[in-house]
Design goal:
426 residues; alpha/beta; eight-stranded mixed β-sheet; six-stranded parallel β-sheet; 15 helices; 14 strands; 17% strand
């Protein structure tokens, strides 16, 4: 009897040791998987082949985190796959936005699962809660079917509740709102960590989630090209007002036209330059008609998209950059203009107040306030020396606001947090 009990005890201890050893091996394997970071960036961003200089610089910097894979869109109607600092898998831009994103939702989870199986991808970074929907499904399937521990980081680069409806007219708006809320709830609920690009986007994420790790840091900015343009010796600023951004209602360009019309007769040598792609043909026609109706045909110039170096030259030569948006996650062009030493005027929405300190690095105006914008424009154009002082303060602020090293470190820390908060495989 005694021998039998001893035997049973030894067998139990052996079984316990075996189970403990297995657990240790699993934990060691999971830690090894975590240390070998393989990140898949999932979003609606568009890329060319080869990459533009800014994107190339960004993904070259992100190589310090680990191996990178990118799912997005090509900048034309052809699907593309290429390797440049990361492996890019780009969907073609077919049809209207609805068709493109339905294709994205259908195809991207398949691509993610293939990358998990083929390359061992273990980190998914979704550009918004909507792209996060595809990534969340891929994460669930990878954990259940492939038995892979995958972490998901969902980012917010804008007001994901309102921006779409400020951007274009939507039929059956209530249906869209219901679907968008369901999708955002699903993806945010399955995220292991979140990232906001501004105080406003952080507060929105906090309203939608509880107990999630949230990191806040700004979007990638190739700030050196703007600093270099602004520091050119002997540069003379011209008396033109600059807007940079896509031409859509949310950006409030029509308010800028009205404000410029109010000061055009008083400041006769001033001009307005609008740089950006047309993403809403109806709105672009409205702006053209407004320009003619306000008698500004010879004073307003519409230009298409420019390269970063070309934008830097325009920003460094302008008297002021204006971003009159109704909604804005951060407003990166504000930071870029500040890096050039150019005064800025921006709406007090989203992340713009994170950068503009009133009368120190620029001016804040209520969104849609044509009179307030006209007054600020007149002040800057009529007081170039004081405007120059504001520009210098803005340049110093921009230097401290973004650094490549901190950007990479922030992502590295966020990925660590996501693994800390991820549930173990069962």
């Amino acid at each position: 009897m005694v021998l039998r009990r001893q035997g049973e005890q030894e067998m139990n201890e052996a079984a316990h040791r075996s189970e403990e050893a297995l657990t240790n091996r699993i934990e060691i394997h999971e830690r090894q998987d975590e240390s070998a970071r393989k990140c898949c960036w999932v979003g609606g961003a568009r890329y060319g082949c080869p990459l533009d200089k800014t994107s190339a610089k960004k993904f070259q910097a992100l190589k310090r985190i680990g191996e990178n894979f990118v799912i997005g869109f090509s900048n034309d109607t052809k699907p593309r796959h290429f390797v440049e600092h990361a492996r890019f898998y780009l969907l073609p831009q077919w049809g209207p936005p609805t068709i493109r994103y339905l294709t994205f939702f259908a195809v991207s989870p398949i691509v993610i699962l293939w990358l998990v199986k083929r390359y061992g991808v273990n980190v998914l970074v979704a550009q918004s809660p909507y792209e996060g929907f595809s990534a969340a499904w891929a994460k669930i399937i990878a954990r259940i079917v492939l038995r892979k521990k995958i972490v998901l980081i969902v980012e917010s680069h804008g007001d994901f509740e309102k921006d779409l409806f400020l951007q274009r007219r939507i039929l059956f708006r209530f249906i869209y709102q219901f679907l968008m809320q369901a999708i955002a709830t699903f993806s945010l609920g399955r995220a292991d960590a979140l990232r906001a690009v501004s105080k406003a986007t952080r507060e929105q994420l906090e309203r939608w989630t509880t107990g999630k790790a949230i990191a806040q840091f700004t979007a990638w900015t190739d700030i050196e090209v703007f600093q270099d343009a602004g520091s050119s010796v002997g540069r003379k600023r011209e008396k033109f007002i600059l807007y940079v951004g896509v031409l859509i209602p949310r950006k409030g360009v029509h308010f800028l036209l009205e404000s410029f019309a109010r000061i055009a007769n008083e400041i006769k040598d001033s001009r307005l330059v609008l740089i950006g792609k047309t993403d809403d043909d109806g709105y672009a026609r409205l702006l053209t008609k407004m320009t003619a109706r306000l008698g500004l045909g010879q004073r307003v110039t519409f230009m298409g998209p420019k390269t970063q170096s070309e934008l830097a030259e325009f920003m460094a030569g302008a008297e002021v950059l204006v971003l009159p948006s109704l909604s804005e996650a951060l407003g990166r062009v504000v930071l870029e203009a500040m890096a050039c030493g150019t005064p800025v005027i921006g709406s007090a929405v989203g992340g713009i107040p994170d950068m503009i300190q009133e009368r120190k690095t620029g001016f804040l105006i209520p969104p849609g306030d044509v009179g307030a914008l006209a007054e600020r424009l007149k002040w800057i154009l009529q007081q170039p020396e004081k405007a120059k002082q504001i520009g210098e303060s803005a340049r110093k602020f921009a230097q401290d606001f973004f650094s490549e090293e901190q950007y990479v470190q922030n992502y590295s820390d966020l990925i660590d947090k996501s693994f800390d908060h991820a549930s173990p495989l069962v």
